[in-house]
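Internal tracking record. Fields below are filled automatically when a chain is submitted to the structure queue. Please do not edit lines marked as system-generated. If the sequence contains nonstandard residues, flag them in the REMARKS field before resubmitting.
Queue: standard
Priority: normal
Entity type: single polypeptide chain
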Amino acid sequence: MEHVYASIDLGSDSIKLAVCELYKNHLNLLAATTIPSRGIKKGLITDPELAKNSILLAFRSIEDMLGIKIKKVIANVPNHMAEYKLIRGECDIPGDLITSKDMINSYKAGIKKNLMPNEEFVTVVPIDFKINGKTVMKDPKGFPGKKLMGRAMMVTTPKKNVYSVVSIIESLGIEIVDISVESIGDMNCFRTETLDKGISAIINVGADITTVSLYNKSIPVITKIIGAGGNDIDRDLAYTYKLELKDARKIKEKFALAHVRNASVHDIYETVNLDNVKIKINQKAVSEVVMGRINEILTLAKNELKDLTNKPIQYIIITGGTSNMLDFEYVLRDVLPTASKGSVKLIGVRNNKYSTVIGNIIYFLNTLKLKGMDYSMLSEDDMDELSSPRENSNDDTMLGKVFGYFFGE
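SYSTEM-GENERATED OUTPUT FOLLOWS
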């Protein structure tokens, strides 16, 4: 065990934290946890102290699973008001062959020129490089040249989006080694050679918000936020049946279907409403309420995509926790027949609520590979401790090999 990486996603409903190991070019899950979040609304931190306590619980949960302290992490920052800017930069090559340092230097001028005072730099997504004004390639390391021009998509957000997350996590004594945004994480979770060839979109239906991201050859172009998500379903059910929100959510997660197609009027759920009256709810009726809200959210996303581009979108992927509902695919057929539900393929987290947190680890690894760097978030002592037998160890947290396709295997 040589390379270990941790990633955290701060959501309005829950905090997702995952730790993975890269072994022989395969990504293996070591541990993952979901902790209810507090102090976070619509993806933004509204109460730092409450948010800090929730984040601390997530780290403690992972540390209990692995028996080591997590000291470094990749953090996701809010997509709100994110800007995507195409940048170009050029540099001279001091040596005979192009190095990773030359590739980074080619971006620096473009970054400096396009970064506004109120913005915080998040990352650059490489597009391609041109050697001596002629030869274009994705990775020019090791090739001869005198001048190198690099094109990339620079991602920025308002400073407060970054500082609010960084300050809380670092106050816990945890170092942030990289930051990313949802649009990058989701794409890298689902990225394929097919997506690399056309225009695509990813719709992440979260708890309070739905994020609509547009891509050109897997490069993020623009992101829009819709103020509706899975929590609206809870409120609809609570209002319709006069229930507490926690009871409405339980019905959504344990009983209702996303579409009425397979729902039954004979399948009954019994509960007590706010008037302390015992009521019976049939599955078809409750699924109609759920389907109506999901239909509305997807329609809003569909209209947003029409506003974002007049070009045909070849591929639309739906992710986020709400997309895990049973029969969600049938609502897609009604509203977005060309779309498909995403599938997180990493064993142990085959749940779309983890798409961003897992995708950010993959993007981080891809960046390391492009830079020719070798890096792990754990020291040798930490790895020895992680590899040592422990009492009450949970074998379920040491899960299988996957994502070999990411490295072309």
